[in-house]
Write a sequence for this structure.
């Protein structure tokens, strides 16, 4: 399967600190996306990075992609208590647009 | 801002019963998806739908499952004879023709099979 695997599984930080989450995947991809899920709720799209891109920024989010290592990282800078959620990477296999999700990182930001 | 809606939010059913989960995708979107998430596990792709037919389906999407777009707005997932292991959150998602591939998810339907 091409599902991503995130690490760490859980991350707890103080408000204002940066949070870094990593994702690895197994097969070639068209793009990689990061989603956020608050407990018991739906998934919210955060950012998409194409396979030919190496870095993307969106507000306090920074995503990197290394296709040679089949890995991506999501950095949230200056974290806030409201960032507490689970974060998932999802890979989009070339041409299919069906998303394959990783296991997620549970981020807790302590006020 | 347009959003994907799903009904019901929670469905309890007995094993062997049929259930229909309903979704209203974003109105100008053309690609529709169902995913499920068993409690504590990862989100799993079930099926994608485009131009009134299934584009791709996963191994999970067996003969017990079917999807339909009965009118111009609704997108449904039917489970013909529910099993205990069908208990999960079911998410509908849609995607527009524009954009790079980001999908917009509904809030989910929690299905509990007893």
């Amino acid at each position: 399967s091409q599902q991503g695997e995130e690490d760490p599984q859980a991350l707890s930080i103080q408000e204002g600190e940066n949070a870094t989450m990593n994702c690895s995947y197994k097969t070639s991809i068209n793009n990689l996306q990061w989603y956020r899920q608050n407990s018991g709720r739906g998934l919210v799209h955060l950012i998409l990075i194409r396979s030919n891109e190496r870095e993307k920024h969106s507000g306090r989010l920074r995503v990197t992609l290394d296709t040679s290592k089949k890995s991506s990282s999501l950095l949230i800078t200056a974290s806030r208590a409201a960032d507490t959620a689970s974060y998932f990477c999802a890979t989009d296999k070339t041409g299919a647009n069906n998303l394959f999700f990783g296991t997620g990182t549970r981020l807790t930001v302590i006020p | 801002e347009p959003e994907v809606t799903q009904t019901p939010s929670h469905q309890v059913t007995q094993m062997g019963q049929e259930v229909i989960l309903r979704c209203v995708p974003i109105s100008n979107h053309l690609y529709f998806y169902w995913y499920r998430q068993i409690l504590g596990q990862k989100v799993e792709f079930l099926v994608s739908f485009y131009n009134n037919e299934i584009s791709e389906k996963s191994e999970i999407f067996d003969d017990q499952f079917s999807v339909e777009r009965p009118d111009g707005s609704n997108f449904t997932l039917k489970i013909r004879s529910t099993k205990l292991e069908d208990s999960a959150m079911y998410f509908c998602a849609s995607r527009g023709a524009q954009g790079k591939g980001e999908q917009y998810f509904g809030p989910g339907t929690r299905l509990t099979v007893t």
